[in-house]
Amino acid sequence: MTDEDRRGLAKETGRSAGKIGLSLLVAIGLGYVLTLLIGRWLGPADNKVFLSFWGILMGLGSALSPLEQELSRQSAVAALEGRKPGRAALRALTVGAAIVAVIAGLTLVVPVLDERLYSGRTELGVIVFCGALSFAFQFAARGLLVGAQRITQYSWLVFTEAAVRVLVLAGVFVAGLTGIVPFAIAAAVGSFAWLLFVRPIRTLIDPHLDGEAWRPVTARIVLLIAGAGLTASVITGYPALVSLLAPAGDAAKVGVLFAALQVSRVPLLLLSPLQALAVPTVVRLSGTEDGMHRLRRLLALGTLGTLVVGAVGALAGLLIGPWLVRLLLGAKYASAQGWWLGGMVWGAVLLTAMQLMTAVLVARTQANKVLVTWAVVAVSTVLVLLFLPGDTILRAVVGLGVGPTAGLVVAASFVLRRPGNVRSGSNV
Predict the structure, then answer these.
(1) pLDDT tens across 212-221, in order?
(2) How many angstroms separate the Cα of 83 from the Cα of each of 79, 206, 208, 353?
(3) pLDDT at 424
(4) Ranges under pLDDT 70 in the chain
(5) pLDDT digits (tens, 9 = 90+) for 175-214
(6) Per-residue confidence (pLDDT) for residue 195, from 0 to 100
(7) How far apart are CA 70 and CA 296, in angstroms?
(8) Phi, psi at residue 417, to the nearest 5°?
(9) Which of 60, 112, 376, 426 is the most buried (most CB within 10 A)?
(10) Cβ burial, residue 13 (10 Å; 0-12/13-18/19+)
(11) How high is the pLDDT of residue 268?
């Protein structure tokens, strides 16, 4: 890779990150408007139920993020070879959709899951099923767009998803339908935004090209989604995980904890543009020995920076976190405590770095290492939730610190090694 090539890649990545970053920041803002308005209206006890629903819906959506990364990888590799992705992309979409349909269906038909996740409101489970299935198509569309460098259309899709939710929520308020189920419908509608982009997406795939067979595609997607499902259990789905494994405790107090968790997750959202671009960028950098050396150096510096930012963020959460929760959500949430926010922000910063690191592993087609990394995080967190002495609040906060810390050690050990499966050219 020449100096001119490096400068070109840096400029291209910077422009793409800028476009995606702007759309994601707007989408993040709209998402926070939605959850904050709903939290203010419902109050802590009912908001606990809504955030558990939100956690399982967005958790299943997050579990499909590897589908975006896999299709962006296929699309980037295809572009290097002067073609479009073929049937392997459709096979990956089919496998992803089938997996989330089965999981969402289980939350409906297993009584204990329905009770703990939806508080017996089966209609919330139906909404989750429809929204999660549509998310498979949405993430597939995003992967094809970003892999083909259709950054403007990708950005519009990201924005449209969040905007549709807020518009439907506004309609719900105007109609006076201010209950958990109407709010849940507004939350799920955004997953259908891909329907507005069907025409440009169809031009990015060639169904006549066969590509990889069902078996390797299925094995890789299953591993990646399993890893992402573990990821989601400690990120977007954490309220649902706590409701499932540590259901005891005062509902209103746990509702305040879940609301504080939403506020503490800003670090996870701010680096979303880099996560979206990570896979195609790693594919390009990994084409040469010099590019791989530069990538490992960036990852090493990023790991050290993560620890520093995590410590600073934890201190900020401790000092100003409760004030920020009260400001955003109102006096009903005044019982939030600084040590909650400090622990949550530490975990959020580490999880942000881990998401970028596992995107590197996806680009290297090391799905087994992605699964191991998130298994360490999820198992560590689950053990804390189940066995740590103390109430639900203590276990939930400590779990958010222990799991990501253990996972960062594992992820860093994987990505800082020289990969043995990367080749130059089209074999990346």
Answers:
(1) 888 888 988 8
(2) 6, 9, 12, 33
(3) 43
(4) 1-21, 24-25, 248-249, 266-281, 283-289, 291-292, 418-428
(5) 877 788 999 999 999 999 999 999 888 888 888 888 788 8
(6) 93
(7) 21
(8) -75, 155
(9) 60
(10) middle
(11) 65
What the block records as the tokens of 250 is: 């005062």
- Give the DSSP per-residue string, 74-111: HHHHHHHTTS---HHHHHHHHHHHHHHHHHHHHHHHSH
- The whole-angstrom separation of Cα 147 and Cα 139 is 12
Question: Which structure tokens are listed for 323?
Answer: 């004030």
Q: In the predicted model, what is the mean pLDDT of the chain?
A: 81
- Which of 292, 261, 280 is closest to 422 using CA atoms? 292
Contact yes or no for 260/344 (Cβ under 8 A): yes
CA 94 to chain centre: 20
Q: Which residue has the tokens 């299953």?
A: 222
Please report the pLDDT score of residue 428 as a whole number: 36
Q: Which tokens go with 18? A: 């800028």
Amino acid in position 28: I
- Give the list of residues 6+ apart from residue 389 with CB closer than 8 angstroms, or none: none
pLDDT digits (tens, 9 = 90+) for 49-69: 888 888 889 888 888 888 888
Structure tokens at 294: 């530069």
Which pLDDT does position 423 carry in this prediction? 46
Residue 271 three-state SS: coil
Q: 281: which 2 tokens?
A: 């960028």
Q: Which amino acid is at 250?
A: D
Q: Write out pLDDT tens, residues 88-119.
A: 889 999 999 999 999 999 988 888 888 888 88
| CA dist., res. 253 & res. 337, Å (int) | 11
Q: What is the token pair recorded at 321?
A: 């976190």
- pTM of the model as a whole: 0.73
Structure tokens at 30: 């709209």
Residue 419, both tokens: 């990969």
Residue 291 corresponds to which tokens in the numbers above?
């590019």
Half-sphere exposure in the Cβ direction for 299 (13 Å, CA): 27
pLDDT at position 126 = 93
CA distance 94 to 89: 9
**What angle, 0 to 180 degrees and rounded to 10, lies between the N-to-C axes of helices 289-329 and 338-363?**
150
> Hey, is 237 helix, strand or coil?
coil
State how far the Cα of 372 lies from the Cα of 126, in Å rounded to an integer. 31
SS3 per-residue string spanning 15-74: HHHHHHHHHHHHHHHHHHHHHHHHHHHHCHHHHHHHHHHHHHHHHHHHHCHHHHHHHHHH
